[in-house]
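Q: What would this chain look like folded?
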Amino acid sequence: MKITPIIGLEVHVELKTKSKMFCGCDANHFHVEPNTHTCPVCLGLPGALPVPNKTACQWCIKLGLALGCSINEESFFERKNYFYPDLAKGYQITQLQKPFAIKGHLNIDGHEIKINRAHMEEDTGKSIHENSVTLLDFNRSGVPLVEIVSEPDIQSSEEAKKYLGKLQQIIRYINISDADIEKGSMRCEPTVNVKIEDNGKAYYTPLVEIKNVASLSGVMNAIDYEIKRQINQYQSDKIEKNSSNKTTRGWDADKNQTF
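A: My prediction, written as structure tokens:
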């Protein structure tokens, strides 16, 4: 039985602009008193009008160039509608059809990892779960966020770590973010499934996106755990046909497992 991991990474990077993406509020939210850097725009109040942060847009393009991307001459923002307590407007302003930067790559030990896109969006607020209640802090809501989406070209957790390390190095070198994973200014969501070649046939396990990974070692551990879990599931279930179902799982760093 031959096992080939198929790994992609979605990386979110908070830009260190002075103001937020669509309003003039102070974008610094780390260890700041909750809900003090807010206004009608980033709180999503009726009638508030967003105005794009020019510097953030330029920095997204700057990152795209550093990653070898092509830059779209025409671009626009769209609404991604979903409902969650920390999303005040009920939608996120982001890019889908015409992102700023597309088709880049990073070279890791001679292996080219293709980058699908680097697009501009806004961050959400922060949910703080305490005992039986959830508290909301909207200081982070509207902070400029670049999402870098790789193709599923990564083949191991070690390669994923090297990719993130090189990406972090580039971001810091061009001076657009501190890209500190522990502070949350660089966040990663791995997508993982496995190609299993067994008895002359190829099977693909269902794709899983892993949330809440807060460190480089956590990324490696989450990917390794998920690969083993999917292989074990295949061996116990003996899946006879490929499944297209995509699921989302969280990462529990204390238990060292996805859920």
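The first strand starts at residue 2 and ends at 14.
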